[in-house]
Design goal:
This protein has helices at 10-27, 68-81, 91-94, 105-109, 135-139, 156-170, 174-186, 224-227, 233-245, 253-259, 268-273, 327-341, 357-360, and strands at 31-38, 41-49, 62-63, 203-205, 212-214, 230-231, 275-277, 282-286, 289-298, 301-308, 313-319, 364-368, 371-377, 383-387, 395-399, 404-407, 416-421, 427-432, 435-438. It has 461 residues and is of the alpha+beta class. The strands form four sheets. The protein has an eight-stranded antiparallel β-barrel. A seven-stranded antiparallel beta sheet has the order 2-1-11-10-9-8-7, sandwiched between helices. Strands 3-6 form a two-stranded antiparallel sheet. Helix 1 (10-27) packs antiparallel against helix 12, helix 2 (68-81) crosses helix 7 and helix 9 (233-245) crosses helix 10 (253-259).
Length: 461
């Protein structure tokens, strides 16, 4: 994937290069390669290497570790969208006999299924997958370490089960299904379960000396859906654009938005850190931005994919060392550099082509008790409700086609909004999940729960 040097301003490109140069030097990485995506396409590529004349480009493969989980999650969401399964289904319904079938598919996607973080010894990342040929070998004698659904506990075996679920339903190996249903449609021809030249070698860097040790490269076998894939910054840039916008050949915009939505109860430390988990994607709040994506690591490799949907900017960072550079921080910084130096230019405002008078009638000021709210009809044909001042509950609403509207965010997500009309057809009030919104505070001409004092508003003498 070649990018034009004019895509970003020279000062922005230098700032990006400086950031990855610092990361490679201070993190002592044999090589580090990065890409930035804006407006759905790669606009910058950079790399640093310890070998003169051998800097990797956007086509060199690195192992991406747990970023693989996002690919597996896409396959599962495709099954849901086809109606083959429901995310609320227990695993046992589709993949019986695992001993962990009480967990729902959604809980496995969000790491809330109660499963152990790792498979039994020996450590699966540095030993052949042939040592764990069956699901029982991956899960061990004690697959559950927490009550199902109660807490977020990151689980690699959980994604092994999701990969096995895909194989069971599709009747084909996970790798084959992934290639056919995701990699081919998105044009990710440099992504796969096995390395293909050119690819980086994996290294361990001595913590107290500037020397290297080659890391073994193992086929993970059953654990592949949790961390097997190799990819490039070029391919992951395309994948980042897909996760931000969707692609109906693979997964709709609504479904990838669902992946990016928090789905796991956060631990107290996670709340403080501003981090949680969606369906196959990590979510964090950093430097005032909501970032989604995933990190990855396997012996010899580090990887990070970071997306700011609000800024329409994403970053990919890959390195071939077991530890060293903090790629999550690097990815967040690359996004921040572009978003702050060259902020997104919004689309021009355009009026609605037409509007239903009965909908326009709802626009304006409303009161929930004494709290003032404004209701707008937006250019996309939706309603937007929010407080006139200070903090308060707000949401956009989607029309249902029958005169009612469904909330899309926050407290009102999924709640029904309807206009209650008088016998003459005029609007009396709005009913939002039993909350009554009136044109005046405690309007005595509307049906206010508990009624309105007949003497009305008064002062105190």
């Amino acid at each position: 994937m070649t990018t034009s040097p004019e895509e970003l301003l020279p000062a922005t490109r230098r700032a990006l290069l400086h950031r990855i140069a610092v990361a490679q030097a201070e993190g002592r990485a044999p090589s580090l390669v990065a890409a930035v995506v804006r407006d759905g396409r790669a606009v910058w590529h950079g790399s640093r290497s310890s070998m003169d004349g051998h800097a990797p480009d956007e086509n060199v493969q690195y192992r991406i570790g747990s970023i693989t989980k996002a690919f597996t999650a896409v396959l599962v969401l495709r099954l849901r969208d086809e109606g083959v399964l429901d995310l609320g289904d227990p695993l046992e319904k589709h993949l019986p006999g695992t001993g962990a079938g009480e967990a729902t598919i959604a809980e496995l996607l969000a790491h809330t299924g109660g499963l152990a973080a790792e498979s039994p010894a020996p450590w699966w990342e540095r030993t052949p997958g042939a040592l764990r040929p069956e699901l029982s070998d991956v899960l061990g004698e004690r697959p559950l370490v927490h009550p199902v659904g109660r807490r977020h506990h990151y689980s690699n075996p959980g994604y092994t089960l999701l990969g096995a679920l895909v194989e069971e339903v599709r009747g084909a190996p996970w790798e084959e299904v992934l290639h056919r249903e995701v990699l081919e449609p998105l044009g990710l021809d440099r992504t796969g379960a096995q390395p293909r030249a050119p690819h980086a070698g994996g290294w361990a860097v001595h913590p107290w000396a500037d020397v290297l040790l080659p890391e073994p490269v193992e086929d993970l076998g059953r654990m592949a859906p949790a961390g097997q894939l190799w990819s490039t910054t070029g391919d992951l840039a395309r994948f980042a654009a897909f996760l931000a916008r969707g692609d109906d050949r693979v997964l709709s915009a609504d479904s990838v938005r669902e992946m990016r939505t928090p789905a796991a109860p956060a631990e107290a430390a996670d709340v403080m850190d501003g981090a949680t988990y969606g369906l196959g994607l990590q979510i964090q709040h950093r430097h005032g931005r909501l970032l989604v994506g995933h990190s990855g690591s396997l012996p010899g490799f580090l990887a990070n994919l970071t997306i700011s949907v609000g800024d329409d900017v994403a970053a990919v960072v890959l390195a071939n060392c077991t530890s060293g550079p903090l790629l999550g921080a690097v990815g967040a910084d690359l996004v921040r550099i572009v978003a702050e130096a060259e902020p997104r230019i919004p689309e021009p405002w355009r009026p609605l082509r037409e509007v239903d008078p009965s909908v326009l009638e709802l626009a304006g000021q409303w009161y929930w008790g004494t709290h003032g709210y404004g209701l707008r009809v937006t250019a996309d044909g939706r309603l937007s409700l929010g407080p006139l001042s200070g903090n308060g509950r707000s949401s956009r609403f989607r029309a249902n086609g029958d005169g009612t509207w469904t909330g899309l965010e926050g407290y009102y997500h999924g709640e029904l909004l309807r206009a209650v009309r008088r016998p003459d057809g005029s609007v009396s009030h709005l009913d939002l999940g039993s909350f009554v919104f009136t044109r005046q505070p405690y309007d005595d001409g509307a049906t206010v729960p508990g009624g309105v004092d007949p003497e009305g508003w008064r002062g105190i003498g």
